[in-house]
Structure prediction request, 341 residues.
Amino acid sequence: MPHDKTNQPPAGAPHEDDVVLSTRVRLARNLRDFPFPARLSAEGRQKVAAQVRAAAAAAEDAIGPLQWIDMARLPRVKAISMAERRVISAEFACQSPQSALLLRNDEALSIMLCEEDHLRIQALCPGLALSAAFALADAADTALGKHLAYAFDDHLGYLTQCPTNLGTAMRASVLLHLPALAALGRVARLSESISKLGLTIRGAFGEGSDAEGALFQLSNQVTLGITESQALENLQALTLQIAEQERRARADALKDPQWENKVWRAYGILKYARFLESGDALKLLSYVRMGAAGGLLPVSPAVVSTLMTALQPATLALSRAADDPATRDLARAEMIREALS
Prediction:
């Protein structure tokens, strides 16, 4: 069978915060008695939402209270900010008005309704935390499954709208900061070897996205014929290998006066700039985070990681009431100056 919860994912791993910013685990689930979302009517979507909402209320003792968010009533800037913070997918932020979201207050657990599948159960944790993220998503899946009839086949596992998700229907990913490997052109070569192992490396927001700020998403590709535990073990082992390669490349780079100058120059610009566009700021912060992780700068990598998310256009617009690009560029520079002071 492709699905086996008796095996446990890897546990006790270090957080690897200098390279790994966050971990995400998503489980795709569909209800047995309804068509997939692509063929689901507005009335059908409402029925799916009602069943899932009732199941979440019944499972509250196991998974905690979840806020119900009608995406049609959520301001677009808030939806985009959620996507920037990886709480929901970019596709879901632009979904149809019948979509809804169940969200825990700390945003570690979210359930997207009628995205590509009826349910996308997501757990989001800082650092390298595959065990913790899987445990959270799995607990929600188990609790909801007591009240919902999932579409499942003994040979194919969980049935999903996209055939590539059949089996465990689990997508686990880690967000990596790889400035040294990217500068050396090694990420492209890594991508070729990684694909042979059933994993993929892309831009920070998945397929088709750019790796702005040298941020990359490493995730499993294979879901059929493999257990969740095996997939997580493979992902963790490769993450640790890539993290070590990045550290060695950073150490060599920071011995070079030209690289040291790039890091300090980026730090100086960010500390005193008055206007910063998001792409420029992210590129400069990438150098600063590299220098911070290497002990070269008087700033924490965690502070820089927070800035890399907070400076995104929609998230910044919400936190600083910056509605137009010029105001955001001004507010972005001010936010970074405050953090680096």
Observations:
- The longest helix spans residues 228-253.
